[in-house]
Amino acid sequence: MPAARTSQRATLAALDRVGTVMLLRRHDTLFYEGDAAECCYKVVAGTLRSCRLLADGRRHINEFLMPGDYVALEAGDTYGFTAEAVSDVTLMRYPRAAVERLMQQQPLLGKCLLGLVCGELCAAQERMLLLGRMSAVERLASFLLMMLARGGGEDRVALPMTRSDIADFLGLTMETVSRTLGQLKSEGVIGMRGAGDIIVPDRGALEDLAEAA
Amino acid sequence: MPAARTSQRATLAALDRVGTVMLLRRHDTLFYEGDAAECCYKVVAGTLRSCRLLADGRRHINEFLMPGDYVALEAGDTYGFTAEAVSDVTLMRYPRAAVERLMQQQPLLGKCLLGLVCGELCAAQERMLLLGRMSAVERLASFLLMMLARGGGEDRVALPMTRSDIADFLGLTMETVSRTLGQLKSEGVIGMRGAGDIIVPDRGALEDLAEAA
DNA sequence: CGCCGCATTGAAATTAGTCAATACTCGTGG
DNA sequence: CCACGAGTATTGACTAATTTCAATGCGGCG
User: Can you give the distance from the CA of residue B41 to the C1' of nucleotide D21 in angstroms?
Assistant: First the structure.
């Protein structure tokens, strides 16, 4: 059950008292799938990717983690995915033991974390629908809308990740991502000022293409 | 952060004091996506499916819910998916207000629920990998292994759901599911005594095909 | 200036999807 | 007890979307 919105920020801020700041350079690995899960994190600046690999090298990106996002809250004894820096990243690191202790003292904190994890679960369900049932165009349109919503900007989307990253996030190939973006551009639905700088002149057009439920 | 395993059952059993038993017939709907989320549930017997629809009728099944599974723990104000009975189902129903109250009194309960939701999130990440990156054979093999693990049986898997349900769970079509199962059968990896009764003589062979990380 | 990583584009190959016909199963009623 | 019928499953032939393989282009950095 998600916690009430009220004072959620304040409750979570308590975490920062047991946290330390940490820096990562582009392409650094924060932790590997299977490592003992000793800390969880919050992204302060930059972008992280959380990914999983199959034995033959196929990769899936669960999530792009951006400022404000918490990382590995849901971990059991070991991390369930590898976390890597897409760009230079600033993090807060929270030792899990300290978080546990804090939860004893602050029952509200537990509710907050529960709310966050519930939100992630809903996002994951959204993505399963995308991966299982949407066409390439719909996937890209949904992705751009998601990035637009998170970016906070009016009509501009920054894509710090590569086409390959996007492909592994959307269950496509890099080539299909590139072609589909090209198609959207030629249709005038998006503009591009460099591969990582997208302009969305008409969000409605994208929404039509995304065909969300 | 997941709760300790110890006495998890006992803690969750406390929920049953605020719950009532409820029956559903095959094809009944428990609730619709978008309904006000007044209760959450636990499956006692039978199988539910949790599904989402796109505007044009495409469907995705998030999860098959079987005895012991909790339903809609992660709900916000409204349900994020529709829940329907695949077979006749027996449920416990817990009013969310009562659950909230219980959480105040029993801090351990919150930790338990957090653990359950974290488990669901991990399962969802597993499924994203499957939906985004696995072939039809790998999807079916993974699915059968999952059902085998949940079923508890030695080498026998009961499939109470239709081929269409399986398809919408795995991001395939009913025809592909049928063909792929046929292929596994002809290769001797599985046996079939009726469409919903699968025999797995050699789990290792299936595991090889599933090619999990 | 030239290289390296990433992005784009093209053509061929492949997987899974679509459409359509046929078969099976189980429950009902004659 | 058997025949019928609805719903489900299987199978086949063809199509379409995406992947794969391969070449080319672009842009920033040393």
Answer: 51
DSSP A87: S
Residue B166 vs residues A47, B26, B173, B194, B202: alpha-carbon distances, Å: 35, 16, 9, 16, 22
How many interface pairs between A and B have CB atoms less than 8 angstroms apart?
137
Average pLDDT over residues A76-88: 97
Would the Cβ of B132 be found within 7 angstroms of any atom in strand C? Answer: no
- The tokens for B129 are 């990998």
A167-198 residue pLDDT tens: 999 999 999 999 999 999 999 999 999 999 99
pLDDT top residue among A107 and A79: A79
What's the rounded Cα separation, in Å, for the pair A171 and B170?
14
Residues 112-171, chain A: which have Cβ within 8 Å of B? 113-114, 117-118, 120-122, 124-125, 127-129, 131-134, 168, 170-171
Whether A5 and chain B come into contact, CB under 8 Å, resolves to: no
Average pLDDT over residues A34-61: 97
Question: CA-CA distance, B28 to B192, in Å (whole number)?
Answer: 28
Residue B98, chain A, CB below 8 Å: the answer is no
Helices A163-170 & A136-151 angle (0-180, nearest 10): 110
Q: How far is B121 from chain A (nearest CA, A)?
A: 5
0.85 exceeded by pTM: yes
